[in-house]
């Protein structure tokens, strides 16, 4: 391809001023494009290009969906009150590997297409569980719930706003649209939580978006069967069940 394109510049002559000028333009344009993309990576969904390979190498080698034991006495006697929790009540309770999982998602949807809960109409998608938690981390980095605003609307094919109030599962997505609702604060809209539910959860949590009820719905957590299909299908070995889901349900009251 390069040899063929080079013939376009043959009329300029070898060593001509015009050819040298074009070389400089193409050289610097190439550098700006490459390094600009590297800067863009850290602020985009394409971050998985960097993190996915690392996540594969550092994946759990022990049996999948193995629950981490809890030392109840140690937790209850922890000197710092913030350490007295039995699961993940906040993103700060996630391990470094759990956070790496969030940033490694390629959003391919293979976990969702094989999830028995999602396929039977439950309010659970392994893909959006990971992306919602990831976007919540981005939101914290941007300054919290009130740092930005956006519109949300029901995803086509998953019901309507009226259906949400009637109990029908509705997936909400960001961006404007013909059925958009009012602008809401935050850098993302949780997939299964309506703007009104998020606002109520934030108001009851001192102005901050709670992990349970504000990022992930409690009914979403309990819809998981812990079958491991999502982990088996993930091309970058994201451990959806170790511990995002069991970690969250451990800290959530039993239904």
Q: Would you kindly provide a written description of the structure presented here, covering whatever features stand out?
A:
This protein has a two-stranded antiparallel sheet with strand order 1-4. Strands 2-3 form a two-stranded antiparallel ribbon. Helices cover 45% and strands 4% of the residues. By secondary structure, the protein is mostly helical. Helix 3 (48-57) packs across helix 5 (96-104). The chain is elongated, with a radius of gyration of 23 Å. The protein starts with a helix and ends with a helix. The chain contains 14 helices and 4 strands.
Short note summarizing the structure:
The chain is built from 14 helices and four strands. The protein is mainly alpha-helical and 255 residues long.
